[in-house]
Amino acid sequence: MSRIKTFKGGIHPAHDGKELTCNMPITEAPLLEKYYVLFSENAGKAPRPTAAVGDKVKKYQLLAEADGFVSANLHSPTSGEITAIVELPGATGVPDKAFEITADGKDHGEVPFAPVSDWKNADSAVIMERIREAGIVGMGGAAFPSHVKLTVPPGKNVDTLIINGAECEPYLTADHRLMVEFPEKVLCGAAIMAKMLNVANVFVGIENNKRDAIASLESLAPEYGIKVIPLQVRYPQGAEKQLIKAITDRTVPSGGLPADAGCIVQNAGSSAAVYEAVVLGIPLIERIVTVTGEVVKNPGNFKLKIGTPVIEAVKMAGGITEEPGKLILGGPMMGFSQKSFDVPVAKNTSGILLLPVDKVLNFASSPCIRCARCVEACPMNLMPCLLCADVEGNRFDLAQSDHVMDCLECGACAYVCPSHRPLVQLLRRAKAEVRKAKNKGTVQK
Amino acid sequence: MSENISNDIKLPTGEKLVLSSSPHISANGNVRGIMLKVITALLPAAAAGIWFFGLPAAAVIVLTVISCVIAEAVWCLLAGKPVIPAITDFSAVVTGVILALNLPSAVPFYIPVIGGFIAIWLGKQVFGGLGHNPFNPAIVARVALLIALPAAMTIWSPPRGMDKDYPAAELFFGSVAMKQVKQGKLDGISCATPLGIMTDTEKITDTSDRHASAAAKHNFDRINTPALLKKYFWGIRPGCIGETCIPALILGGIMLIIFKLINWRVPVCFIGAVAVTSGLVNFFFPGVTPPPLFHLFTGGVFLGAVFMATDMVSSPVTNRGCLIFGIGCGVITSVIRIWGNYPEGVSFGILIMNALVPLIDRWCAKRPFGYIRRKEV
Amino acid sequence: MALGIDAGAGKRKRAVVRCSGDTLQVVRHLNYNGVTDCAAASLVAGGPKGCRYGCLGLGSCVNACPAGAIEIVNNLALVHRELCIGCGKCVAACPRGVIALVDADAEVHVYCNSPAKGAEKRKQCKVACIGCRKCAKYAEDKFTVNGSLASVNYDAEVLPDAEDVENIKCPTGALLTASQHHLIEKNDPAWKKDKK
User: Is 0.90 topped by the overall pTM?
Assistant: First the structure.
């Protein structure tokens, strides 16, 4: 048996919290009274609203149109009326607007696109246009519009499509359950994208702790000509560059794209969304979200419509046993902590995590003891302890020359730091300063 | 948006929410845990020291630790820093134990006291406290004491197992003390260390008096026998409290490596470099220096390599850097021993390499994943 | 005059933190855990304060000030006017632009920095300027109102004084004299109403 593939660096969280929900089958969410669909649910420009207050909308109806190439369409999750446009923060805390849709309880809609059942013989441009029309974005968290990601830049040669089923973040099991219960959606979506890109090699990368998902995919994968690659359990295996390195042993150059290494990576959830858009003709309006945490009464995986308020999702999971110390959208390593429960679910919300007070990491302003655990843990071969010393001395020029822009902000360094230093925040600060200086044209000291 | 709608479902209000950057979980472990593990790894060497040198060694260890902790507390009080966190992270205790293991057991009481204050104040706090010191604090104290109070720092007691039946005993004790040793009176006797005898031999053989040279060389050969080398290895030789028993130090080193507290490259390269350097010189110029085993089993090479060069704060952060650091320490140690005036070069070797660590970190900086050589735009 | 170049006369300037939103005045101030620096805290969901334009009170300006003139009281930065040398380092350090370098003689300021709509501001802070224009109506040349945010016109011939503040009766207490604003230090909730 060949060695299980992996990458250099990274960490192995001792307690990954997945046992709370990895065996919970996906539960359909009940229809709610109100949905708050954020405008900006994708990286790049927010789409331009085409619906207005007072409009009666049907399920799947277009609410906002993509503004430019790097943007995505937005569709209504249910039928009802747009009663208001409210100000709500997005997951990162940036203030944003949202359509307040008061559902009429019928959840009626017409499938807006004609299903392309014969996708095997369809034109690549048709499939690409469908993916673009359906407003599909990277559902692993980055929310990059998929049609942009799947467009091979001119001059680059892509021969490999990788489906990211790693789900390396602790506590999250949304992709896991998707692959266990609907493997045909993931695999068919992958095959569709492979046909469109005209690539020979298609891999599904999946961590070794999801044995049932591996088995479920392996039973169907040969039909589609897709290989399932089990990977060592390591965070951040799901990061693009590390995934490509582990599966194909190719290195994405610094500052480059996966296409520079001849690969394109898509999340398993996005792959299933591609299947639904192409074969069933429905746009992206719902996704599987893991609602979990030790204070949640009945943690589980729920199929939530976009615009579901987080408080309603917590209600679906049975409420709480005690007040949480943190509300995180996403996973505990890279997710965003929230100020209140008034935020809605978006296309890239993979998890709603309520951590108890005693499990929350308390950053301290303790000094660095140069133990070099962060250096060992960094998947990008950086030296976080020295980089953060640069930042604390306001030497952003030194931070830039020490390659801080290569940082993934994965959090592995801060996870292992025995002094509990806020390394990721300092690195983000450096990256923000370097970006600001690049825009101004100088690097400040 | 967050009201209780039924008695069954309790909804969160968000009153205890904390806002912070990712990540939101961390590995178990803190600085105190690391220090406690280091102390555990030091226990075999400390126990061996007390076994061989008796209660005076225990007193030195206790006194040094207390002195270090008090020095830390006093500095924090004077500097307005919070005292309890500084003391409860046990870094002063670790410094104290390591410094104590570097002292001879017969030192007068003021040596541990002064040493503790020098280590904490001059070796750590003036640079900004924990994590900011470029030099290993214990070494700073030891070198300062050695240079300022050389007489007090070079009184060596015979360990348990060293008596009149010890091979070449009269060379270690000297003719005057030997009379008392023959009578079985070992209290208050001081003796020479093997390295000390080696240095004296070199001084004599350097002179033009050929008879004295030959005699000195002959005497030296008597302390370089395999039987004695075995005794040196197990710790039956005069020296600092913690440096004599090599198996205890090896055990401590293995514990440190298993607990993932040190980079194994530092001790391995240090010891390897001492062996290789002294081996090469001995091979080509056998009269200049004894073979490598003598160098390894006498003096403080193992103590320095395992516990002092590996101090996290003053050693490099990259693997390649640690390699160079270890080799540098070993080479400098050997050079000082072979050609320098001091019998022992470990402390100076480590100090000099500590000074070079920022440079080593810069030179051995890791290339990021996917690094490509680009011309500066 | 040196080297034949006239240096010109400059007006003495002092810094003022245009915010009164300390922990007593803001509606909600979250527990924040992380780097004690305002620019770094702003990166985390826009900072622990509801208002995105107000003072975070983490002390980046305090670290930047060479004269030690700034003090943090209840999560709010206060510039001690008598110590301020007008160098402007705090202005550069503040990531939100809350600090302004103004005429040293100015006694009266509008302690609000948020251009958001008045109703939104009131949800976050009890002493925000709601843009009611009472001050501008009283003395058009002394105050400028941009949308929902009023500010003192520091270039005016005559600057507003304590009497003006008394006559205007700002409904939220955003318009204050510097000495009134400094009563914040005493944690006295009546500081808004104190006339001296």
Answer: yes
